[in-house]
Design brief:
By secondary structure, the protein is mostly beta strands. Helix content is about 5%, strand content about 40%. The chain has helices spanning about 10, 40-45; strands at about 1-5, 15-20, 30-40, 55-65, 70-80, 85-90, 100-105, 120-130, 145, 165-175. Strand 5 and strand 6 form a beta hairpin. It is globular, with a radius of gyration of 16 Å. The two termini are about 15 Å apart.
């Protein structure tokens, strides 16, 4: 956690952000870097989101910043069986806070048990190595979770440079198709 003292997110009332930083350069194909939040299955099952219907949606919004300009990904990964993956891309200019909002439809294959087990992981991903990516990974759609097809191949290598940073703040996941102002 880092303190936020100025900028657009600060103007919206955010005073802290989460930071992921590389401490040494390493470009191994088995490497991955991400910040994740696990949401309990019961919170999704009882949220009011008709997650098995493609006409019902949730919206995720957040502020992101990275020391290296590029295309990065957010990935929603269900944890109840069967596991599904919904990745989408967002682009950031170097060292500039960018507001991201994405509407995600339901899917008839999604399952969220009404229990306190993990329901979904929301991952903010500056880099996955080649072991977890492929040219055939599908963006902006639900697909069965598969290790080599989680995300497309990355055009930038976040781990290749010591001292790279990736920051997020103001994360909100809400039922509906429109990002509303953050509820502090």
């Amino acid at each position: 956690q880092q303190s936020l003292t100025s900028g657009d997110p600060y103007d919206e009332g955010f005073r802290y952000f989460a930071r992921l930083a590389t401490t040494s350069a390493d470009s191994n194909a088995n490497n991955y870097y991400y910040i994740a939040q696990v949401i309990e299955s019961q919170n999704l099952a009882c949220s009011g989101w008709n997650y098995t219907s493609s006409s019902s949606s949730v919206c995720i919004s957040f502020w992101g910043r990275c020391s290296e300009a590029g295309t990065y990904y957010c990935q929603l990964r269900t944890e109840d069986t069967p596991q599904y993956n919904y990745p989408f891309a967002f682009t950031i200019s170097a060292n500039t806070w960018t507001k991201v909002a994405k509407t995600i439809p339901g899917n008839s294959n999604l399952v969220f048990n009404n229990d306190n087990g993990a329901g979904i992981q929301v991952r903010f991903v500056p880099y996955y190595g080649g072991t977890y990516t492929s040219g055939s990974a599908v963006l902006n759609d639900w697909s069965a979770h598969s290790a080599p097809d989680q995300l497309p191949d990355f055009s930038t290598d976040f781990g290749a440079t010591s001292g790279n940073t990736f920051d997020i703040t103001g994360v909100q996941l809400e039922v509906g198709s429109v990002a509303t102002p953050f509820e502090h």
